[in-house]
Every structure is written in C-alpha cells, then in structure tokens.
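Hi R.,

Here's the chain you asked about this morning:
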Amino acid sequence: MTYSSSRSSSISRRVLLGALAAAGAVPMLGGRARAAASMEEIKKRGLIVATEDDFRPFEFVKDGKPTGFDNELVDDLRKYAPFEIKQEILPWTGILAGVSTGKYDVAITAAIITKERKKSLDFTSPIADATHYYVKKKSDTSIKSIKDLSEKTCGVQAGSALLGRLPELKTMIEKAGGKMGKIVEYTSYPEAYQDLALGRTDYVVNTIINLKSLVLEKPAVFEVGQPVSGPSFPAWAVAKDNKDLLGFLNGFIAKQKETGRFAELQKKWFGEAFPNLPVTFEPDF
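And here is the predicted structure, written out as tokens:
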C-alpha cells in the first residue's frame, strides 16, 4: 500500500507525532507523563474531559456551542456527577495521547477499541456500532462494489483505527482480483470529504454512523458503499488501570441506558438505536 499526506493539509512533524501518540505509538510531547488522577483527586478538582472539535455526529461545534451525541451526554454527566466537569475541546490527534499520559481524565469521543490502544488505555462499554464502510461521489459510476476499488485512491484520517484496519480492505480487494491503491491521510474527515467531492480521491473510509450523517447532509454529492471491515465499536477512553474512573463512567452509561436516554440520543444523532451492543469488547485488531 502507498501512503501519502493530504495536499491541502500536509501532516507536519508535530501533527504526525500527535497522530502516532493518539494511536499509542509514542509518548505525549512536552515532557514527563503524569499519573492518572484517582477518583479522590477528581472529586476535589473536577473531571477533565476531552472531546473532539469536528467529528459529526458524535461531537462538533455549531454556532460556537459544542453539540452532538457525546456532547449531550457530557451535559447529562454534569447533572449525574457529584463534582465539576471541565471540558476541553481539541483536534483528534491530541486526545488519546493526552488521556494515556494523564493530561485529561477521559476522552468522551468515539474512540474505536483496538488492540494497540488497549496497551495504554481502558475503554468503557461501547456507545455505538462502528463497522467501517467506504463512501464515494454519487456521480462516480465506476465504483459499484469492493472490486471496483482496485487501484483507486483512498482517503482516511491519520492516526485513526480505520487506518490500522485498511489491510482488511486490501485483502477484500485482492480476493476480488484487484490491488489496493494509494492511501491519502488527512488530519480531519471534513478535509477528506472535501477532497473526495473535488475528485482528488476516489473514496473515503469511515464508520457507518459518520458516513450516514455525511450522506444525510449532502445526499446529492455522496453515496455509501459496502462494509470494509469486521465488527468494530467505539467507546470512551481512560488511562490504563484507572479502574475507579472506568467504573464510574460505566455506571453512568448503564444508567443512561436504563432510563432510555441512551437510545433516545442514538436515534436523534445516528438515526437508529443499538440495543444489542456488547457490555465489553475484545478486538481482533
């Protein structure tokens, strides 16, 4: 497979290292890692929550206000928690590294559970389905199935779990008699979608929920294709072995499910609820 950076937003050394850190490959830049805060410390100074700035429909900013599935749950968490919730909104590439090194207590975002990430992070119960699909331009009649992706240019976010699972797609294409084409990495999915609309890439790989949201917003421009991965689930992340905080967050999620609030927000933001999500998930990749 051939990898390259986005022309519109080439990945600098700083961003590249941040992306690798998000995947659990390198320590956070800027000094010594801090130990994860205990629940006693959190109760005194508040819970420091990190959310993404632009990952629809999970988290994004509209009219200067954070919104989306996870941000609504952050609002609910403020009512549930007996301590202050301090929210930091930042690009994806700095979030998981910041949690693993103690800068933030929890990543309340759609972080896909992977084997690599579980080396430095623990995950809550899954919050949705995250099977990977491809999306193409609706006007591109050359792509009708997986075999038509042969030697086509693929867009994907740098440092994401989807990038790590592209070998699954490579195998699918090769079984269909084709060859994986060039892969272009982007710092954010809006940039990837823009290049797809402009014809700079042929298709983009993302989770089904994100792609449904994209097509709902721009039905005349984009069209979702077939799945390109096995089962996959997103969840919130805390530092490895921070069991008390993990238990607190899982208790909150269980309560939201019990009251029906979780399903309500899933239907609002994803167009469907996921009543059969596993309580825990051990990834194969």
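One quick note: The two ends are 18 Å apart (CA to CA).

Cheers,
M.
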